[in-house]
């Protein structure tokens, strides 16, 4: 997975470099701003950026971390002001708004012409999250897994049926309330 992530970020940086980015240095170096929301991943992203800089002299990468609860407000303000980062993390919950608002670069042609980017290597549904009107606006970095773990003994004791594909958030809340026994320190 680390190899895939390194390749992804290098490709992302190259795509931005090809598209043109801001030069904030008098020495002629190109400076790419790479914005993320996870402080824990910063050392890994910095290491990847360092490897990219070593392989691409004259291109510098500034990894910029903004906490999740401020990230989207900051990106939207930057988009309004025309100062979006060159490369930034996008979440599936925000991608449609940013793509439809013309805040993301259409990468379709660059990806089609790339020998390194192959979207078929990603789950189809993941790639679709960043595709609008047939245009691709992002390369997936990773995928989160959402799951529900439950204690069958507690469910059996409370007479609650096990979760299945028919459950909704309301069903989950109802089950949690039935499983809760505050007197015995059990919270569903």
The CATH class of the largest domain: Alpha Beta
Mean pLDDT: 87
Largest sheet: 3 strands, parallel
Shape: elongated
Named at the architecture level, the CATH assignment of the largest domain is 3-Layer(aba) Sandwich
Q: What Rg is obtained from the alpha carbons, in whole angstroms?
A: 22 Å
**Which structural class do you get from the secondary structure elements?**
mainly alpha
- In N-to-C order, the SSE pattern is HEHEHEHHHEEHH
Structural domain count: 2
Question: Which short descriptors sum up this protein?
Answer:
about 190 residues, mainly alpha, D-Maltodextrin-Binding Protein, domain 2, 2 domains, three-stranded parallel sheet, two-stranded antiparallel ribbon, 8 helices
Tell me what you see in this structure.
This protein has helices at residues 2-19, 42-55, 68-81, 92-100, 108-112, 124-128, 152-158, 169-179; strands at residues 30-36, 59-65, 87-88, 131-132, 135-136. The protein is mostly helical and 188 residues long. The strands form 2 sheets. Strands 2-1-3 form a 3-stranded parallel sheet. Strands 4-5 form a two-stranded antiparallel sheet.
Map the helices and strands.
Elements: H1 2-19, E1 30-36, H2 42-55, E2 59-65, H3 68-81, E3 87-88, H4 92-100, H5 108-112, H6 124-128, E4 131-132, E5 135-136, H7 152-158, H8 169-179
Parallel strand pairs: 1-2, 1-3
Antiparallel strand pairs: 4-5
Helix pairs in contact: 1-2
């Amino acid at each position: 997975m680390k190899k895939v992530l390194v390749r992804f970020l290098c490709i992302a940086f190259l795509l931005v470099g090809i598209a043109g980015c801001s030069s904030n240095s008098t020495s002629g170096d190109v400076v790419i701003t790479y914005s993320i929301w996870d402080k824990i991943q910063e050392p890994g992203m910095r290491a990847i950026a360092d490897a990219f800089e070593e392989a691409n002299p004259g291109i510098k990468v500034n990894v910029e971390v903004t906490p999740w609860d401020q990230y989207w407000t900051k990106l939207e303000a930057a988009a309004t002001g025309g100062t979006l980062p060159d490369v930034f993390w996008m979440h599936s919950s925000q991608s449609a708004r940013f793509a439809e608002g013309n805040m993301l670069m259409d990468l379709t042609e660059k990806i089609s012409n790339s020998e390194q980017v192959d979207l078929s290597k990603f789950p189809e549904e993941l790639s679709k999250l960043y595709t609008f009107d047939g245009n691709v606006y992002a390369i997936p970095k990773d995928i989160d897994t959402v799951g529900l773990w439950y204690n069958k003994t507690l469910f059996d004791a409370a007479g609650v049926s096990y979760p299945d594909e028919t459950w909704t958030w309301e069903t989950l809340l109802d089950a949690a309330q039935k499983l809760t026994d505050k007197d015995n320190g059990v919270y569903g």
